[in-house]
Specification:
It is a single chain. By secondary structure, the protein is α+β, with helices and mostly antiparallel strands. The chain has one domain: 2-Layer Sandwich (GMP Synthetase, Chain A, domain 3). A 3-stranded mixed beta sheet has the order 1-2-3. The radius of gyration is 17 Å and the shape is globular.
């Protein structure tokens, strides 16, 4: 009986963790939606790849994928917008 109670407690904890991750993902997606409009005007796009702790990983697509200005866009637009809207984000990284 006590094993079942411990298992139930563990499952409840996991549900809480999943809920927090979903909220964080939603916040990031909302910021990326705002940025996406600017990128799409130039033939590019951006997608959220993953969130690991206080780091966010994004992927540039379309014209942004091979653009020499992608690093400046990442730092000056993407990272700045995410940091302003979502406290606690330490780093935004681009992946290929």
């Amino acid at each position: 009986m006590s094993k079942n109670r411990n298992l139930r407690f563990t499952l409840e904890d996991q549900k809480g963790i999943d809920k927090m991750s979903v909220i964080e993902k939603k916040q990031v997606e909302e910021v990326l939606a705002q940025i996406r409009q600017s990128l799409q005007m130039d033939g590019g796009d951006i997608e959220l790849v993953k969130i690991e702790g206080d780091e966010i990983f994004v992927k540039f697509k379309g014209a942004c994928a091979g653009c020499p200005m992608a690093q400046m866009t990442l730092e000056g637009l993407v990272a700045q917008a995410i940091s302003e809207k979502i406290p606690g984000v330490k780093k935004v990284k681009s992946v290929n």
